[in-house]
Design goal:
Strand content: 25-35%
Distance between the termini: 16 Å
Number of helices: 2
Number of strands: 5
Largest sheet: 5 strands, antiparallel
């Protein structure tokens, strides 16, 4: 969190809304550890990572919805061996749960 906090603070000073995505559960192999964070602003800024690029685009979109609805969301991302070459997900074969919440400071 420390590495993304300066950007979050600046966005808030600039009057932007901010959503924070956190890896809250890891099943099997995952590209980022439990507790990894990514922040998204209402202006489209992004900092941090929850999956080293595998699902960040979808997390960004979901974070925008969270900001519009002002309601947190828990999303599971993963991929089975059969889906590995047909879908966007975690190619490492693991699953992660990402909790996305609006920051109301």
């Amino acid at each position: 969190m420390r590495e993304i906090l300066p950007e979050i603070e600046q966005w808030l000073r600039d009057g932007k809304q901010v959503a924070l995505a956190t890896v809250v559960k890891v099943y099997g192999s995952a590209p980022r550890p439990l507790g990894s964070k990514m922040a998204v602003s209402s202006a489209g800024d992004m900092v941090g990572s929850v999956s080293a690029g595998c699902v960040e685009g979808n997390v960004f979109q979901e974070a925008q919805r969270v900001l519009k609805e002002n309601r947190p969301k828990l999303i599971e991302y993963g991929i089975t061996d059969e889906m590995a070459f047909e879908a966007v997900g975690l190619l490492c074969g693991g699953n992660i749960d990402v909790y996305i919440e609006p920051l109301n400071w």
